[in-house]
Design brief:
elongated; mainly alpha; two-stranded antiparallel ribbon; 11 helices
């Protein structure tokens, strides 16, 4: 789908909001409150260490907030670009069942198939209306029903294509159009019930996603805090404090938490919505909260 200039401008503005928030807004707010937790650009300390693979090590609280805000708001900006496509596919799934029911009524009333498709789409509205009218026009121009269907509905969701595949079958079925549409109507109803049941059962997994990430973050923080106490206790002993690199360990936990958030969000999005794009929204929220937690921990260790 073509992106309008307004959507592109909004997406760029959201992406720029990440570094602005972490480098300007947060330092200003904390200074006004009398704290010196965030210092903006001056507080950025990131270096790369090569242990088999290059690992970015974040050495300050500003580094965590900046990285987290940039990743989160970039994901949100990408999500906004594709949100309209996701909403269109969602509306197509909702409209399909009503469309088949209305089309079946028109056909039983004796309306020709191509005309019934147009009238039914007008009753349902967009976005399905655009697909159906284009399909009817191609049929009226003499196109093969199956080729016309693939041309028009080729990028539609699988559930929508499975139900609406009755359209080309109806055109070549002769006098059994009403029977074909009746079977498709029953199939669409059962598919809709199954989809609602699946979403109801899996909706709670979104909460489980955040709980899992939170448990991992808290476990990693406890481990890092214990290691920092061990390092301080060993400072006066023959064991050097440098033998435990707290910032390196904390960075490893942070990077792994980001990967867990992304992979888990993709799995939840596919299972609950049948879409991959919504994972950007869930990952952005989880990564932003995780970054703020690690930033606070980095301040006090």
């Amino acid at each position: 789908m073509r992106r309008g200039p307004r959507a592109l401008a909004l997406s760029v503005a959201i992406a720029l909001l990440g570094p602005i928030l972490s480098l300007i807004v947060l330092p200003t707010i904390t200074r006004l409150m009398g704290f010196n937790i965030f210092r903006g650009v001056e507080g950025l300390y990131i270096k790369v260490r090569f242990y088999y693979i290059p690992i970015p090590v974040l050495l300050s609280s500003d580094s965590y907030t900046t990285v987290g805000c940039i990743i989160s708001f970039t994901m949100l900006s990408i999500y906004l670009l594709f949100k309209e496509d996701v909403e269109t596919r969602k509306m197509l799934r909702r409209q399909t069942q009503d469309f088949i029911a209305v089309l079946s009524s028109y056909v039983r009333a004796g309306v020709p198939m191509s005309k019934a498709v147009e009238l039914s789409s007008n009753a349902i509205g967009k976005p399905l209306q655009d697909y159906a009218i284009r399909f009817a026009k191609l049929i009226q121009l003499g196109f093969d029903p199956f080729k016309a269907f693939e041309t028009v509905f080729g990028n539609a969701p699988r559930e929508v294509k499975a139900v609406l595949s009755c359209l080309p079958v109806g055109f070549v079925s002769g006098g059994r159009v009403a029977e074909v549409l009746s079977i498709a109507e029953r199939f669409s109803f059962q598919l809709s019930r199954l989809d609602d049941l699946r979403k109801t059962r899996l909706e709670g997994y979104k909460s489980l996603l955040y709980l899992t990430i939170f448990a991992y973050v808290m476990g990693s923080i406890i481990t890092v805090v214990l290691l920092s106490y061990i390092a301080k206790a060993a400072f006066a002993t023959p064991f050097a404090r440098a033998s435990i690199d707290i910032y390196y360990i904390l960075s490893l936990y942070y990077i792994s938490a980001i990967f867990i958030a992304i992979i888990s969000s993709i799995a939840i999005s596919r299972m609950v919505y049948g879409e991959t794009i919504p994972f950007l929204k869930y990952s952005a929220i989880a990564i932003l909260v995780t970054s703020l937690i690690f930033s606070l921990v980095c301040t006090f260790i």
